[in-house]
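To make the argument concrete, we let one protein speak, a sequence paired with a row of structure tokens, as a model reads it:
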Amino acid sequence: MILFRILPVFWAWSAGADFFQFDSISNVSTYYFNYFYCNIWEGDCQPNQDDATQQVPTRDFLSTLPQDCMRTLTEWYCSLGQCCDTGDCRIKNNVTGLAKDLELRLHGQHLAQAVVLKAIEGFLSNNDPNKPLTLSFHGWSGTGKNFVARLVAENLYRDGVKSECVRLFIAPFHFPHAKLVDVYKGQLKEAIRDTVLRCQQTLFIFDEAEKLHPGLIDAIKPFMGHYDNVDGVSYRRSIFLFLSNIGGSVINEVTLDFWHSGQNREDIGMEDLEHRLRYEAVESQGGFGQSELMSDHLIDFFVPFLPLEYRHVKLCARDAYVARGVQPREETLDEVAKAMVYVPKEEKLFSAQGCKSIPQRINFFLP
């Protein structure tokens, strides 16, 4: 096994001792157990910094290990009974929990609920995907794009968006200056590569993706392509989520047309929106639409988020109250919902703010 070939090398490098001294071998075992327990499986550890055999290498050391070596070490660690079903206790892949959360906590988004669940479930059940999963969320602000991204993180990873297997990038915050795009390219590529080396399954979320510079997206395009590996690293177990307001007007027009024709919004299908969304994304100004992600057809699903109606806002308000341990009255929920702004001006049908501002607004209605 590779493990037994590399351990003597690691030991010689770190301990500088004779191979056949059993006390040294014991020290090396403790040394690397501490490393894997503390840095990879995140155990509660406080190594003794005064004892060289107890010190733990820095996390940068992990990036020097080949992926097949890490896989072998993971299998060895799991054989000791110190592992989870996924092979990594940071990863839980609770698809059942995701389905339940999307059904009970996401309101007015039957398309997003169905498409996201199907895409995630299909990707996780494939032991050898030919490319990373790439989803593009579209719709007005406050319709649930960030919320769904968070639900995905919470159900796939033990620590949710705080997991070291998850990286969130907010375009205007992380990459604010166009003149520094070359610097951002290197930083972004390094961040993604480092995360993939640390975790066998990763999630990358790009919020306000329409504000990304085209060169920045194209720099990481190979990570989302149909490659076995890029510079020796496989990215095929990664999930990329792009969140943007692109196509919001098209989504709203289709939803309004259904309402005017007396049809239920639940009758809106992907066939009514996906092609129009794809066209809007390609024609949009900004880095996302102009990137090679579009021209090379690397987006697996364009996921529409419909504008929310009064009844959906009430459900969001109810959830916000319950999260604070308060059981609201129906009259209170109506007061919160009525305080929102609705469009079009004639019908006042869709909430202009969605559910985004609900948690702050209910403060005015708490007893």
User: Anything to note?
Assistant: Strands lie at 133-139, 166-170, 202-207, 238-244, 301-305, 342-343, 350-351. The two ends are 65 Å apart (CA to CA). The first helix runs from residue 2 to 15. Residues 91 and 157 are 5 Å apart (CA to CA).
